[in-house]
Design brief:
Elements (H helix, E strand, L loop, with lengths): L2 H9 L2 E5 L2 E4 H29 L7 H26 L4 H15 L4 H16 L7 E4 L2 E8 L3 E5 L5 E5 L1 H5 L2 E3 L7 E10 L4 H14 L10 E7 L3 E10 L6 H18 L9 E6 L2 E6 L1
Helix pairs in contact: 2-3, 3-5, 7-8
Length: 288
């Protein structure tokens, strides 16, 4: 037997039978080659839809990405069926096999399916988008990637947290920058009784005005919140855009400056005090 005859024999040797269709090495190679070609064409088609077809429209990039993803998956699904049919595989027999497998692994793929559908909802409805500052399930960070299965969040400690997309649909999500990155921060401050409240207000507003991270186009204000047990309770409220992803740093910097200014003006911070009375051998602690 010549070389080409042997090659033809082995390439067309039936490896398995699916219904009335025989799967050979040539069938497998044919399917794999066309699937690779389909994937390449689909990827380029997706980039064309996202970057060119809708480039001049008013549709947000994330929505364009979602449309491109749906188009890509649709092309892959239809193209795969066409490839299998052209390879001579009986699709009805394949449907029976797929149904049998689906019963066995359906329960195990429930979470995958849920996250996949949730990913489509996230991409289309846009409750979050890349660049948003979010808090979900105890994780707080910036959204860096949204895929169909999960969303990647990077915390301030540069730790990547992979959150299943179903969490953004079924759980409570705090989006700090849903409309824009402007966030208001509150600073509770308590000073001792006897302090001039207007002086405290002026100092706090001056600190807010001088800090470079506080927005000047949105007015800062100071609330005299209540007359507390140990002193006057104030709340300094400021707006920031540059510290949205690191509010703790803004709190620290302003608190340092408050402590320094209060010391300059001899403004005392209260400390809880208790008076102790001894009567008949019993010790009672009474609030000041």
């Amino acid at each position: 037997m010549h070389f080409w005859d042997k090659l033809y024999y082995y390439v067309n040797f039936p490896l398995l039978k699916l219904g009335e269709s025989q799967i050979t090495a040539w069938t497998i190679a044919y399917i794999l080659l066309l699937l690779v070609l389909l994937y390449t064409i689909t990827t380029r088609m997706k980039h064309w839809v996202v970057d060119r077809l809708f480039a001049k429209s008013h549709i947000e990039y994330g929505t364009r990405e979602a449309i491109g993803t749906i188009v890509a998956y649709s092309i892959v699904a239809v193209g795969t069926l066409v490839i299998l049919d052209s390879a001579g595989i009986n699709l009805s027999a394949l449907t029976i096999v797929a149904g049998a497998l689906g019963i066995g692994i359906g329960f195990g793929l429930q979470n995958v399916t849920t996250n996949f559908i949730s990913g489509l909802i996230v991409l289309l409805e846009r409750p979050i988008k890349v660049g948003d500052r979010v808090q979900v399930e105890g994780a707080t960070g910036d959204v860096v990637k949204i895929s169909l299965r999960a969303t990647t969040i990077v915390t301030n400690d540069n730790i990547a947290v992979i959150v299943p997309n179903s969490e953004f649909i079924s759980s409570k999500v705090i989006n700090w920058s849903y409309k824009n990155k402007d966030v208001r921060c509150n600073f509770p401050i308590t000073v001792a009784y006897g302090t001039d409240p207007e002086l405290v207000r002026d100092i706090l507003l001056e600190i807010a005005e001088e800090h470079p991270g506080v927005l000047k186009d949105k007015k800062s204000d100071v609330l005299l919140d209540q007359f507390g047990e140990s002193g006057l309770n104030f709340i300094l409220r400021v707006w920031t855009r540059t510290y949205t992803s690191k509010p703790g740093v803004l709190h620290s910097e302003i608190n340092y400056e408050i402590a320094r200014r209060f010391e300059q003006h001899a403004i005392q911070l209260p400390s809880p005090q208790r008076d102790v009375y001894v009567r008949g051998g019993e010790i009672k602690v009474m609030p000041d």
